[in-house]
Design goal:
The protein is of the alpha+beta class. The protein is about 40% helix and about 15% strand. It contains 23 helices and 20 strands.
Amino acid sequence: MTTAAATKTEISPNLLSAYRRRDIGGYDELLGPGGAPRPHWQPLLASLDDLTADERQLRTTRLARRVRETGIAYDIFADPNTSAQRWTLDLLPIIISADEWSGLERALIQRARLFDALLQDVYGHQDLLTAGILPAELIFSDPAYLAPSNGIVPRSGGLMFYAADLARGEDGRWRVIDNHTETLAGIGFALANRVVHTHVAGDIFNGCNARRLAPYFQELQTTLTHHSGRENARVALLTPGPHHEDYFSHAFLARYLGYLIVEGHDLKTRSAQVYLKTLEGLKEIDLIVRCISGKSSDPLELDPTGFIGPSGLLRVCRASPHAVVNAIGTALAQNRGLGPYLPTLAHHILGEELELKDAPRRWLGDPDARQELFDHPDRFSIRKAQEGTGRPGQAALGWEARALATPEREKMKREIALHGATLVAEEKIGFSCAPIHGSDGLMPKPFAMRLFVSKDASGSYQVMPGGLAMSVDPDRAVALSAPEGQTRDVWVLAEGEQAPHISLWRPTLATARIERSQRVIQSRVADDLFWLGRYSERADWTMRVLRGALRRIEEDSAPDSGCRAARKCLEILFGKDLDLLARGREAKDDAEIERLCATLIAGGSGSRTLERTLDGLYRVAHLVRDRLSLEAWQTLSKFRSGETWREALNSSQPVEMLDILDEGIAAIASFNGFMH
């Protein structure tokens, strides 16, 4: 740490004045017992202190703009004029010291090893069930237990990816509030946050000597290639599709790692192989990284109601167990009812004491646990044992037993007696507070964080040196519940000087692949790219016709024949939308041109209106986002979400409409340029 900020020891009292005035009920991450900043937060505070209040606010504004332009966590199927931004990234990260990280890293690796061994036993010899160490009802009542996967998980290696949600209680100890063993659990969101944050606050990041994420993902690439068993392997992320709320995470990660992103209907199984449908025919897929639920992976043997995964995928896994990671069925290990049994399991399976315990929890399939809940209802919240909270911040809040009236409590007891095996009762442990950047300066805010673990090429586990933190409501939540989407990056401080940074965004000769044919592309993606071009062409053509018509009526010397020609062109654009033309049949040319232009720009009912055309362009661009350059996406997103464009949709002034049309034509031209 050679910057001036890193060596600065005196922090201005004004920086922390607002923070100190707030009452912090739980553990304070920033300030120690004496009220002084903890040493590992000192470099960050020094960097912030070197900035004025206006400069800090400017960086916050730039950060929000970058989040908006990157498209993190937007609902692409919502109305573009009314959709709210449900994802914000704070300027201040969560700081974890090197010493504390060492303990967390060791504990998370232990839990990954434990869950891996647990899954191999449950889907293998089931010794834990036979010996009574695990209740059979806990396992077999869980819908995530997939009997067709018996024998597959042990041979596949089981758990490639694991994530844990952590919270720190008032006693200063970290506890796990949820485990994630099904899919990647939002690691793409954490990666996108880091990329966006370092673009805005890279100098602060360097001043803190925080560890970078690139080496972790480089090792992950090596591991997946090794796991596939082939050099230059074709790896695909299997996603539910653009309609899914985690699609951004899947697409961003696939783009970063250079992998394909596919949907179930892009794939076909034959014998022991999965193939990708392309314009040149079927191409082998060497490894599938599963981003869909296990029970939806194969409509032939599992859930027949949907086709999220390809038919016959389990048949392929029986012949080639390493074809899919995580293995189908691993969601079983994220059952919250396992929490009370984990210390015993760690001792029995690993011969070790469990280093990082779960939050206080009772499995309500146990009669003693049910009785404890009935005797002390004010202590507990009741939640589902298996929830599948893959997206960060979307864990259900559960319901409070103490808030129920007497008749409702009796009904609750009957429900628990019938379905207790699928429920847990949890005690609140509280959440620690860390600073965020508010309008008055630094303010304390409770948070929980998610950390990510994966296997390395040697078969051991590695922990990503960072994560994703989200602000929570400590009075309601017992898990990572953050409906407002207020997020923070997690920085892990390095002990020594770091090696030079090599980003995975930078292509190298070692990783470049030369495709001899331009047609080696998924057939679905080819359709989407076709419509992307059509929408782009239509938007450009429509805006040029509108601009020409408006300039006709702006010119005082324009001949009548020119206005009539402009009006005729606009009427042709409406096509069969005759109801939009009928109102102005008798109007003068210039007045009718203004009305038709305003309708074509902002009208919501016509099939050729500019608003609907740009909306279609944006949606199709989302479908092929992994094929777009970052510059192309940012150009399109910035124009679509810009305040100037939104104001112009409600404007009827020709001059204002001309200005926005000029801006739109330039944006589409830039977009097409980046595409080519």
